[in-house]
């Protein structure tokens, strides 16, 4: 049996305009595309993790689920209370890759965030997206796949 566990490391970039802040990031729940068997890589197959969690869908023609995916939850803390958040952008900086074989691309990345930090200076950011197989017909090796997302928070 081949198992694939896909996890994402999040890297945060803060763009601070006109304020002196010492923000920190706390991972409450890391974005994970779960554990799956890739049973068919003859086409691009997808696992979709909803930003609001716990919902997810996957293409049963390409995958057999072992463990469920989960959306990511990250706290930006150490900010001034009630600081307005201008925007949040999530981008893939490296695909979900293992030691060998094809990768999974993370696409349709999405996020939700509050309009401002709370009275404690914390903003909770939720992250979801899609992991896609290569569709090349090349089998995926039994291994853990990790990738990196950059989450840019603008104030």
Rounded mean pLDDT score: 87
Q: Which parts are unreliable, with pLDDT below 50 for 5 consecutive residues or more?
A: 14-18
| Spatial extent as radius of gyration | 17 Å
Report the sheet with the most strands, covering strand number, pairing sense and barrel closure.
6 strands, antiparallel
- Summed up, the helix count is 0
Beta-strand content estimate: over 45%
Terminal residue distance: 47 Å
How many strand units?
A: 11
* Structural class based on helices, strands and sheet pairing: mainly beta
Oligomer: single chain
> How do the helices and strands follow one another from N- to C-terminus?
EEEEEEEEEEE
Using the alpha-carbon principal axes, give the shape: elongated
Helix proportion range = under 10%
Structure commentary:
The chain is mainly β and 155 residues long. The protein is 0% helix and 54% strand. It contains no helices and 11 strands. The protein has strands at 4-15, 24-29, 32-38, 46-49, 56-58, 63-67, 72-77, 87-97, 105-112, 123-132, 143-154. Strands 2, 4, 5, 7, 9 and 10 form a 6-stranded antiparallel sheet that branches. A hairpin with a 6-residue loop joins strand 4 and strand 5 (56-58). The protein is elongated. It starts with a strand and ends with a strand. The model is unreliable at 14-18 (pLDDT under 50).
């Amino acid at each position: 049996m081949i198992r694939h566990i896909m996890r994402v490391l999040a890297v945060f970039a803060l763009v601070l305009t006109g304020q002196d802040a010492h923000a920190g990031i706390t991972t409450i729940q890391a974005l994970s595309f779960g554990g799956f068997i890739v049973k068919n890589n003859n086409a691009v197959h997808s696992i979709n993790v909803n930003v609001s969690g716990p919902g997810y869908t996957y293409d049963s023609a390409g995958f057999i689920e072992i463990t469920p995916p989960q959306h990511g939850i990250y706290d930006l803390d150490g900010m001034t209370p009630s600081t307005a958040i201008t925007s949040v952008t999530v981008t893939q900086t490296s695909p979900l890759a293992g030691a060998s074989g094809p990768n999974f691309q993370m696409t349709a990345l999405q996020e939700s965030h509050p309009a401002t930090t709370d009275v404690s200076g914390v903003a909770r950011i939720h992250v979801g997206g899609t992991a896609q197989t290569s569709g090349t017909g090349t089998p995926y090796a039994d291994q853990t796949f990790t990738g990196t997302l950059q989450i840019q928070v603008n104030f």
